[in-house]
Amino acid sequence: MRYLSRMTVLVAASGALLFASPAFAQTQANTQPAPASKGKDPNRVICEKVEDTGSRVASAKICMTAQQWEEKRRADREYLEDAQQRSIEPNSG
Questions:
Q1: Which of 46, 50, 66, 83 could form a disulfide with 36 if both were Cys (CB 3.0 to 4.6 A apart)?
Q2: Is pTM, for the whole model, over 0.85?
């Protein structure tokens, strides 16, 4: 039962990311930090203001380390590429 509940939450969160990714990427384009380079500390904290989708006023301040931002960008990119690939594959039904 717990497994089903966790999977439901995971699926809902993934769906939310899928629909929010284009808008999120669009608002982050101006504030997105450069990828962590060899000379910079991957543990430095970077805060970004992220606007809520569908609102001109509401926003959230998200703080993560440079390494976490890089991992989030990689995971978002992989998820989006996977979703796009699945959308162009022919149905097997």
A1: 66
A2: no
